[in-house]
Amino acid sequence: MDWFAHLNVLSLESRRSEEMEALIRKYGGTPQVAPSMREVKLDLSGPLTAFERDLNAGDIHAVACLTGVGTRMFLKELAARDPKHLDALRNLPLIARGSKPAQALKAFGLPSLLVPKPCTWHEVTEHLLATLTRGQHAVVLEYGEALPLAMRRELGEAGIRVTSIPVYRCAFPQDTGPLARAVRDVVLGGPDILLLSSGTQLLHFLKYAEKLGLLAEARAGLARLVVVSIGPACSEAAADLGLRIDLEANPHKMGILVRVAAEHAPGLIAQRLARAG
């Protein structure tokens, strides 16, 4: 099988950029990996003090963990304050939005309740609505962006008190040169395929395009690409940003993302070229 057949493949992966580049090459693509974000840890002193107070008072009835990175950061600091806090957490429902937060909880010896697929904030909200009662208190560890307003509204209307803890924020990478080149290349029609492993990658790409004064041109360029998402949460975020997703990986893993793209994207491109005459 010819897989990517030397097509130009753009990825906005940051933490695992080298692995992503190697995967694209393995499947015969020409990689362009432009890190689009970095995680900036926030000061957790105030939120941790409030969390400890509520935990000791028995006023936390569920903790929802939305990302592996955020869950690890939060638990590391919580345990550093007092390891006994982890014992207290074992008596609470710890809800994991996917395998990564579940793995982070396991690394601290904690059990997890995995929400059903596609593991978006919708499933987390449905779980909280189904298991908590009016007046109870849910703590949500955020995922680099503020909680969706709809999630807050749905839980609030059910009388569930929500404390949202922003553990980290996503910022532009220290070196924005590759991201700037990626924006310009998309405008000029260089890449054939875009691989997305999070919605935040696309958000940052569009924000940087706007910063360069190229937002409309970048959107037009993206519309020409075959866009492949790592899973439903990423696809949903992309749709909210106005981008069509052509293919979605399942299982939602980086290797599968690249393989699905290599297997199907060249055919989609050929179909589009045929229709264009």
UniProtKB/TrEMBL annotation:
Specify whether Lyase is a keyword of the entry.
Answer: yes
EC code: 4.2.1.75
The Tetrapyrrole biosynthesis uroporphyrinogen III synthase domain covers 19-257
Protein's name in the database: Uroporphyrinogen-III synthase
> Top-level EC class, please?
lyase
UniProt keyword list: Lyase
Coiled-coil spans in chain: none
Source superkingdom:
Bacteria
GO molecular function, a single term: uroporphyrinogen-III synthase activity
